[in-house]
Structures are given as structure tokens and as C-alpha cells.
Design brief:
Elements (H helix, E strand, L loop, with lengths): L1 E14 L2 E2 H4 E16 L2 E14 L1 H9 L3 E16 L6 E20 L2 E22 L4 E13 L2 E5 L7 E3 L5 E13 L2
Antiparallel strand pairs: 1-2, 1-3, 1-11, 3-4, 4-5, 5-6, 6-7, 7-8, 7-9, 8-11, 9-10
Length: 188
Amino acid sequence: MAARAGAAIPLGDASKGVTLSDGLSPQFAAIVDIGGKIIPQIFLGAYLGGNVGGTGTETSKQCDALKASCVAFTYRIGVQLQYHIIPDGKVDPWIGYGIGYEVSRIAGSANGSSFNTTLVGPEYGHILAGVDFRLTKIFGIGPFVDFSFGKYTNLTRDPEPVPGRSSDIADTAMHEWLTIGAKFLFLP
């Protein structure tokens, strides 16, 4: 089991012609990895993550114009595989790959009413790398980098004429997240 924390930087486009950083600013990321080693070198498991941060440049302007307080969230869930190069060493470099699902939401409130925009879609991949420093037999720490890429395929806005109504995004585009931070290992 491991917990990762760091900064997540949005890259690419939310849809064609709309950059992800227009809606979302860099976020604080917290990720939990749960699984086990099927052999000493191979970790197979799941990840569950949540990010929180401010809104991007264009969305921030819209929130300011409405005198609204706005915040952005991103949630992700998926499966991953990690290859540990020196699994029994005090210093263990590793690489990994995962796939999953992502939800990004911008929520705001003004004058007693609230609104949100939600984007959902698959994450086609997470390319991960890091180095684990084993401090004891049950605890370790180390840096990691996680580059994920995916597409938002569905959009929901509330309020709408029909609250909660979602629609497919016609002009999908690739977006990425670059997350850099620290990994805390338990029972490495």
C-alpha cells in the first residue's frame, strides 16, 4: 500500500479549442495505491485519487464576473502495474503503467445558488516512475512522477433546463496531467 501526494498540472485540451488550463489550475493531488506484489518485482493493484485546486484563467474570470466562489476537483480510479528494479534493496527504482477513469468538476456558488460543470472520460494511460527509499521494513518514502493522458467524453452542467442532463462531447481532444510529488510506502 502507498499514498502519494503532490502537485498536478493540467495540460492539453478539455475539448477541441478549449485548453484544460482555461478551466482548471494546478491542483493538490492525493492518490492511494492498494494491491500486492505477485512476484517481488511486480506490483499489481488499483489506484484511487482526488485533486483539489482553483479554476483556470477563463473560468476564474467567469466566476469573478458572477461574484462567485469557485473550486475545481478531479477524481480518478483505475488499475496499475509497477515494475520494481531492486525490490529487496534499500533504494528501489520503479516504473509503472495504469489505465482508468477520470471525473473533473468545477463547482461554484453565488447569492445562495450553486452551479457545477462536470467532465468525465477514460484515462488511456498513466506512465509512472519513482524511487523508493526503504527507511524500515514497514515504511519507505521517495519521489515520483506520473504523466496521465485521456479524453473527456461527457459533459454535465447544473443548472440546465433539465438539471443533471449530460451530453456527449462532440469535439473530443486529448488532455494530460503531470503530477510530481512524494510517495509514502507501507509494507513495501
